[in-house]
Amino acid sequence: MLSTLYLALEIKVLSSKxxxxxxEIMGSRRKARECALQMLxxxxxxxxxxxxxxxxxWSELADGELDPQAREFxxxxxxxxxxxxxxxxxxxxxxxxxWRIARMALVDRNVLRxxxxxxxxxxxxxxxxINEALEIARRFSTYEATQFINxxxxxxKRDLDQLSPQTEIAADEEDEAEILTEIKPEL
Length: 187
Prior knowledge:
Blueprint: H1 2-46, H2 50-61, H3 68-83, H4 85-95, H5 106-121, H6 126-140, H7 143-163, H8 168-183
Helix pairs in contact: 1-3, 1-5, 1-8, 2-3, 3-5, 4-5, 4-7, 5-6, 5-7, 6-7
């Protein structure tokens, strides 16, 4: 009886630590995406590209609270988006009926660009990418923009799912396994 109670308590502690660590990781990755968005915005406004963009952003514009992995992820997203801009913009153009990319609001087009790059070049589940893009749009843009962004990203996701379905469950299980291995030594 005591061992069953102990096991139940251990599972509850593990579950709590897992949820806390998951929130930390998700918060860190969202912050990284927000930094990547800010870099894309700066590239749009100032025309800065590549290493100069990243160096300037991290030295002058960013807050210092981002951990090194998140910082690396943000830089990879921003520079990857800029490197693949023609491919990314073509995907957006194919689904943004009656909208030229140059006429879109700066924030909205860069949220779209960031998410489409992540669809095409990162292992993040596409549904997660859409949810993250919408949360960032809610913070930096308007309510109407979130609807616009959601419609375009959902259409692009459907296109990509027809070409190459993603197994989102496997990606989620990998994240859980990674978090559990980080937490387990603490028990």
